[in-house]
């Protein structure tokens, strides 16, 4: 939260702890968002989540219990990342496959993660739109997603 309020950050790397500001009641995810979580979701602050790294650091006990599932279901702007590929021993393919295995994500879900990442990329707005419309969407359409 301090990165946003004090430093003016426009994204949260390793934003996995944001789950601590969310209270879920019932099986259908009726969330009570705290002030920070509501701000992050309402203003579409990207959450750069690194599932394998988060397991290695103890931020999540397993992929199936990783907050990415809840944060995705609640429509936060979640992006999937590798952190340090060499230290974590993973790749983007590996990260996405783990999420598919744990949460049953399909190509449409992976498309959503990919578009979120491009919306949050360090590129001018018009370039981001070009990549989304002319590369990402057609590629996923060809996959049936």
UniProtKB/TrEMBL annotation:
Source superkingdom: Bacteria
A Pfam family matched in the record: A_deaminase
Keyword vocabulary terms for this entry: Hydrolase, Metal-binding, Zinc
SUPFAM superfamilies: Metallo-dependent hydrolases
GO molecular function terms noted in the UniProt entry: adenosine deaminase activity; metal ion binding
Signal peptide: none
GO biological process: adenosine catabolic process; hypoxanthine salvage; inosine biosynthetic process
Residues in Adenosine deaminase domain copies: 2-134
UniProt-listed InterPro entries: A_deaminase_dom, Ado/ade_deaminase, Metal_Hydrolase
CC terms in the record's Gene Ontology section: cytosol
Needed cofactors: Zn(2+)
EC number(s) given by UniProt: 3.5.4.4
Enzyme class: hydrolase
Family that this chain belongs to: Belongs to the metallo-dependent hydrolases superfamily. Adenosine and AMP deaminases family.
Alphabetized PANTHER family for the sequence: ADENOSINE DEAMINASE
Protein name: adenosine deaminase
